[in-house]
Amino acid sequence: MKEKYKALFEPFTLRNGVQLKNRVIMAPMTTFSANPDDTASDAEINHYAARSNGPGMVITACAYVQENGKGFEGQFAADRDEMIPSLRKVASSIKDRGAKAIIQLYHGGRLAVPHLIQTVKQ
């Protein structure tokens, strides 16, 4: 390995004290594979598990954070407490292999797909 790349594979401490095993970060990639109830599917969990041995940090696909913010089919949710067990499974599949887990938060905004969003209760 060239000397100039050596630092990429050395531990790195963030300002908040969290230590990464290296400076390699897996960028978020959408898999469109959430369950019909918007929980993370086994396929999605396995996707992260298979990719979390090397990088110091893994950023998940985006999870919608408000019931009217779902942007596409197969997106997992982070909009209510009932989703915590699902999100915990995703995080554990990453952390159990040595990487830090980061969830990408998302709201579809004006691009939210009308047939996918639930009516906001007033």
Protein described:
The structure is a single chain. By secondary structure, the protein is α/β, with parallel strands linked by helices. The protein has a domain at 11-27 and 37-102. It is 18% helix and 17% strand. It is built from 2 helices and 5 strands; from the N terminus they run βββαβαβ. It has helices at 42-51, 84-95, and strands at residues 12-13, 19-20, 25-26, 57-64, 100-106. The strands form 2 sheets. The protein has a 3-stranded parallel β-sheet with strand order 3-4-5, with helices on one face. A two-stranded antiparallel ribbon has the order 1-2. The longest helix has 12 residues, at 84-95. 22% of the residues are buried.
Brief sketch in words of this structure:
With 122 residues, the protein is an alpha/beta fold.
Shape: elongated
**How are strands sequenced across the largest beta sheet?**
3-4-5
What is the distance, rounded to the nearest whole angstrom, between the alpha carbons of the first and last residues?
Answer: 59 Å
> Helices and strands, in N-to-C order?
EEEHEHE
- Number of DSSP helical runs: 2
Helicity range of the residues? Answer: 10-25%
Q: What is the radius of gyration?
A: 16 Å
Give the biggest beta sheet.
Answer: 3 strands, parallel
Overall mean pLDDT: 93
Structural class estimated from helices and strands: alpha/beta
Low-confidence blocks of residues = none
